[in-house]
Specification:
25% of the residues lie in helices and 32% in strands. By secondary structure, it is of the alpha+beta class. The strands form 5 sheets. Strands 2, 5, 6, 9, 10, 11, 12, 15 and 16 form a 9-stranded antiparallel beta sheet that branches. A two-stranded parallel sheet has the order 1-17. The protein has a two-stranded antiparallel sheet with strand order 3-4. The radius of gyration is 23 Å and the shape is globular. It starts with 6 loop residues before the first strand and ends in an 8-residue tail after the last strand.
Amino acid sequence: MSEGKVKVFEIAILGRALWELHSLNNEGNVGNVVEPRSVKIIDPNTGKAVTTDGISGEMLKHIHAEMMWLLDDKNHLCAACRTLHPERFNYVVSKTGKYSKGDEPKVIEDALKTCDICDVHGFMVEKPTVSRKSTVEFGWALGIPEVYRDIHLHARHALGEKGKRQESEEGREGGTQMIYHRPTRTGRYAIVTVFQPWRIGLNEAKQDVYTYDGKRRKERYQLALKAYQLMFTRPEGAMTTTRLPHVVDFEGVIVYSTEPMPVPVISPLKDNYVSEIEKIANALDSIQVVKFKGVADFVEKLRILVNAEPYQMTFGGE
């Protein structure tokens, strides 16, 4: 493709990531045991119901947003997103108190002008009630059966008190030792995510008139793509202080459209997902498929799209 001229409507990243000995997402604590996330799926290759490991879309989306925040110079973020406040523009609206019912289009307009992350990742405002749908979507990262899971026993000791008798076998406060159990998982995970560059800067609050704020569309598009590159080279999440994932591999396809056409999203849970996507692309115009083998190859192949332009729709009657 000729860089700087192609306009990108949608992008999907579909692949299989191999992460070893991680604990990126968990159900919570049961006593002194941390339970890993489990989900039930139909294995498309066997047709059988199975229980497998899962990393929620919320966790993956949070990783992407944090990578965008790291890359941004902070001059184009709202007061909430400068500190990664989870409420995003709702926090700004509640603090200023300058918006009221009927100002919904103005809320979206001001957010789009102000903040890269609010535009790309969306937000909800309570009063006046209005929302900005995210341009970035993530499904669950699903363990391709089977994922190896284990629970490890650990003990916490008070410094200088090893060997002293523990006050309580039940571990009540005052004891020098605490026994706890932490999970690790190793496996290949099916990744599905869609990015909609055509919606960057688009104010959809008024149903009869759609308008674009075009000042930072290209910059936000590039930030989102670079965040994708980083999140698969260094995934963040739960327990990375002691269970930083061993990133081993990432292979799959980058699917993008150059005209208003949704990209196909076939799950990498299927063994033949790449060939199926290629058949769909051959049957439809404006769909391109780029294969990648390995993390470095993914970064290089996604870089092809960085200098393209986010597609801008034209709406009749404006």
